[in-house]
Amino acid sequence: MIYQGKALTAKYLDDGIAELCFDLEGDSVNKFNRLTLEELGEATAALAAEASLKGVLVTSGKSVFIVGADITEFTELFKLPDADLREWASKANDIFNAFEDLPVPTVAAINGVALGGGFEMCLACDFRVMSSAAIVGLPEVKLGINPGFGGTVRLPRVIGCDNAMLWVATGNQQKPDAALKDGGVDAVVAPDVLHEASLDLLKNAIAGEFDYQARRTEKTSPVKLNDIERMMSFTTGKAMVAQQAGRNMPAPLTAAKSMERNAGLGRAEAIEVEIDHFIKLVRTPQSAALVGLFLSEQAVSKAARGFAKAGGHIKQAAVLGAGIMGGGIAYQSAYKGTPILMKDIADAGLELGMKEAGKLLAKRVSRGRMTADKMSAVLNSIRPSLNYDGFDKADVIVEAVVENPKVKRAVLAETEKHIRNDAVLASNTSTISITYLAEALERPENFCGMHFFNPVHAMPLVEVIRGEKTSDSTVARVVKYALQMGKTPIVVNDCPGFYVNRVLFPYFAGFDMLVRDGADFRKVDKVMEGFGMPMGPAYLMDVVGIDTGYHAAEVMAEGFPDRMRHDFTGISQMMFEAKRYGQKNGIGFYRYEEDAKGKPKKCEDDSALSMAESAKQAAVTLSDDDIIARMMIPMCIETVRCIDEGILRDPADADMGLVMGIGFPVFRGGALRFIDQMGAKAFCEMADRYADLGPLYQPTESLRQMANNGTTFFK
Ligand SMILES: NC(=O)c1ccc[n+]([C@@H]2O[C@H](COP(=O)([O-])OP(=O)(O)OC[C@H]3O[C@@H](n4cnc5c(N)ncnc54)[C@H](O)[C@@H]3O)[C@@H](O)[C@H]2O)c1
Question: What are the 3-hydroxyacyl-CoA dehydrogenase NAD binding domain coordinates in residue numbering (predicted)?
Answer without folding.
Answer: 317-495
